[in-house]
Design a protein that fits this description.
This protein has 743 residues and is α/β, with parallel strands linked by helices. It contains 22 helices and 25 strands. Strands 1, 2, 3, 4, 5, 6, 7, 8, 9 and 13 form a 10-stranded mixed beta sheet that branches. It has a 6-stranded parallel beta sheet with strand order 22-21-20-23-24-25, with helices on both faces. Strands 16-17-18-19 form a 4-stranded parallel beta sheet, sandwiched between helices.
Length: 743
């Protein structure tokens, strides 16, 4: 057995209201031959039973409490991952009982430096599972389906496309590089482990399934207890196991519709002659066999001498995109997008400049570039675009099912019909436009609709908008694009990973700029407590709960917190369960916490001018984080999560803390609350940093990128100095990537 003795391992166990299972799980982890560096338990249950048990019986285990409640396993796993220190981070379910050599076997494949993730066997006690589907363990099929069979034992380690969350591990640096574990994984990925796996596969890393790293689960005990019975129901999973009608000993399984969400499709014919079990109502890729038929096995010649992992005959194609994403809209933050920008769309962050400021002389565009013109759906904030020529078009309504249909059609070689219907309305009059750079904001499907003989289409990414695109579809869709502009290097790397090599050279970074003048208001003097502000959407991914937990952890009332925002844009919408939980937490906080709805752009500078510290505690990988720059421009010190594009937005002028780490965030706030000098130095550095990232600099960077892009227009582009019928107007910077701060 090959091992990697120089690697340390952290183990994360996520639980909800199962103290007995947690006790047995931790007891088994304590019997490992190779001990873990640390064990972290994340409990999302509101009751104290599990947390009391861990504190009293396992004092060496690090205990975290997630206030997000049931159904937030991805967020809890990310919370645990954020505080771990090991080179490898392993995850096991709270009902998984690992073997003594589990960690040794799990580490062995990491001797190959290309291996970024290793998963083990989870023996769930279903008879015959070890002989089933040996060629489909953790596979991504060409039609996009995911297969499991993670209780199978092929007798060796094999490379796979995805892992099982009950028994999996990752190189810490590899998981951190893709932004950690995210809670939003629509489309192909039906659980966070397949989402992580496919994102890692897209980076070129190898994923390994090693059956010797085995663990048993409560399902095995349930199945054992049911042996000899006609039927036994598993109430947690909704599965019914029964014997074949002809007396065949192996059981068939029917899974309830709820189980589809985790692809636990184990319905199959145990006996091909009598077909005791009916097939599930969704495809599983199983082939029923007659009695005595040999299972289909892979033709792998055996383990490689240089690696404990058996190589495949050929490297797999890049995994299809893991999400669905709504065509033409923000990846996760906005409603289906009807606003698509032609020419230089990039609007000032406030959008409501005073008339005297609009008339000021601003930097000119690069020679030969067009004036700013903005395509908007009729009735969509036309006042906001006073500094540019507004082109209105009748909006085609996007149906909720459209994004799922559009994600499926390309697999059949068909275009995204709903996207063409919605976005086609924006380009019907393009023959009347002067030759232009057409910047498709978060809308890759708009690129092929632009007449590239006359205009130069550019994809402008504020989010990872290619998640639903295979490499082949991305190549076909973006072939006409003169450039692909991303708001951060972090996002640019994600986008490049989804593109073929022929298009990767067109990807460029233009970081968002801030309107320094709009935010340069007189500061409101501090008279007492440290004033801490959060501005953004109030959803779990934004990490407001981390901020409140950090304030509560300090146990002092020398700070006051203002949370500004809602999940959406409806001011009078009822509170979501997450918002209610935050208010419950705030009620018991030693420091005062105030909640306010989102504010108009004109009011945002005044709000930030009254804050000493702006906190951006996101637990997901922000594409950039313009809110941090706006806080700096207003003279607030900034504490942000060290994830995604936030380090690029904050630079060396702010404080970065691990995402989800309440202790680190509490320490950062304490440093500013206790040291007025440190606060003033941080505020001064923030202002200097913001001035270096003014929107004019972003404009110049965009000019440079477009000037160097491949020529795709038929004729010379018009000078940007004057739009038809308008006074000279600046071409503004990118829109913010946080829609809470929009009008």
């Amino acid at each position: 057995m090959s091992t990697a003795p120089d690697l340390t391992v952290s183990v994360v166990v996520v639980t909800y209201g199962r103290p007995d299972s947690v006790r047995e799980c931790l007891e088994h982890l304590g019997r490992l031959r190779t001990p873990a560096l640390e064990v972290v338990v994340v409990d999302a249950s509101p009751d104290e039973r599990t947390r009391t048990l861990v504190r009293e019986e396992f004092p060496d285990v690090r205990l975290l409490h997630s206030t997000l409640g049931r159904g937030t396993t991805p967020e809890s796993r990310q919370m645990g991952f954020a505080v771990t220190r090991g080179d490898v981070v392993a995850f096991v379910d709270d009902d998984a009982y690992v073997a003594p050599d589990w960690l040794d076997e799990l580490l062995a494949p990491y001797a190959d430096p290309d291996v970024v993730a290793v998963g083990g066997r989870a023996d769930n006690g279903i008879p015959g599972e070890e002989a089933e589907g040996l060629d489909r363990i953790g596979r991504l099929l060409p039609d996009g389906r995911l297969t499991g069979y993670f209780a199978a034992d092929p007798g060796r380690a094999v490379e796979v496309d995805h892992l099982l969350g009950a028994n999996m591990s990752f190189r810490r640096e590899a998981l951190a590089a893709i932004g950690g574990i995210r809670g939003n994984y629509p489309g192909t990925c039906l659980c966070e482990e397949s989402d992580i796996s496919l994102r890692l596969r897209a980076t070129g890393g190898r994923l390994v399934y090693t059956p010797r790293a085995s663990c048993g689960t409560w399902r095995r005990r349930t199945a054992s207890a049911a042996s000899g019975s006609t039927a036994a129901t598993c109430t947690t999973r909704g599965a019914t196991t029964s014997s074949c009608s002809c007396g065949t000993s192996a059981g068939a399984t029917r899974w309830c519709a709820a189980t589809r969400a985790r692809r636990c499709a184990r319905s199959r014919a145990t006996c091909g002659r009598c077909a005791a079990a009916s097939a599930p109502p969704w495809p599983t890729g199983r082939r029923a066999r007659s009695c005595g038929a040999s299972p289909r096995r892979s033709s792998c010649p055996g383990p490689s001498r240089s690696s404990p992992v058996s190589p495949r005959a050929s490297r797999p194609r890049p995994a299809p995109c893991a999400g669905t994403g709504s065509t033409g809209c923000r990846d996760r933050d906005a409603a289906p997008g009807a606003r698509h920008h032609a020419g230089r769309p990039l609007l000032p962050p406030d959008g409501q400049r005073r008339a005297d400021r609009r008339r000021r002389a601003e930097p000119r565009g690069a020679p030969g570039t067009p004036a700013a013109r903005v395509l908007v759906a009729r009735g969509t904030y036309p006042d906001r675009y006073a500094s540019a020529t507004v082109l209105e078009y009748p909006e085609a309504v996007a149906r909720p099912a459209d994004r799922y249909l559009d994600a499926a059609l390309p697999r059949l070689g068909l275009p995204r019909l709903a996207a063409r219907r919605v976005l086609g309305a924006a380009t019907r009059t393009q023959d009347a436009w002067d030759p232009s750079w057409v910047l498709a904001h978060n809308a890759p499907a708009l690129v092929p609709l632009v007449d590239a003989r006359r205009h130069a289409p550019v994809l402008y990414c504020h989010n990872q908008v290619l998640r639903t695109y295979s490499a082949r579809e991305a190549a076909r869709t973006l072939a006409p694009a003169a450039a692909v502009v991303c708001v951060s290097d972090h996002l640019a790397e994600q986008v490049r990973d989804r593109l073929p090599r022929s298009l990767r050279g067109r990807v460029a970074t233009v970081r968002n700029g801030v309107d320094v003048e709009a935010f340069a208001l007189p500061r409101v003097p501090r008279t007492g407590r440290l004033r801490v502000a959060y501005v953004g959407r109030v959803i779990p991914d934004k990490g407001v709960h981390v901020l409140l937990d950090a304030v509560a952890r300090r146990g002092r009332d020398d700070v006051e917190v203002t949370v500004v925002g809602r999940p959406g844009f409806a001011r009078d919408a009822p509170l979501t369960p997450y918002e209610q939980e935050l208010r419950t937490r705030a009620a018991s906080s030693p420091a005062p916490v105030r909640f306010a709805s989102f504010v108009d752009r004109d009011a945002l500078p005044r709000l930030l001018a009254a804050a000493d510290v702006l906190v951006v505690p996101s637990v997901w990988a922000e594409p950039f984080g313009l809110t941090a720059l706006e806080g700096m421009a207003a003279g607030a010190a900034v504490v942000a999560s060290d994830v995604g594009g936030l380090p690029e937005a904050v630079g060396d002028a702010g404080v970065l803390v691990p995402p989800g780490d309440t202790d680190a965030l509490a320490a950062a706030l304490a440093a500013f609350a206790d040291d007025e000098g440190a606060l003033e130095r941080a505020r001064a550095a923030a202002v200097r940093h913001a001035r270096d990232h003014d929107w004019r600099a972003a404009r110049r960077r965009l000019d440079a990128v477009l000037s160097g892009a491949p020529a795709a227009t038929a004729g010379p582009l018009r000078s940007p100095d004057r739009a038809p019928g308008r006074s000279p107007a600046p071409a503004p910077p990118p829109v913010p990537d946080d829609p809470t701060t929009r009008p």
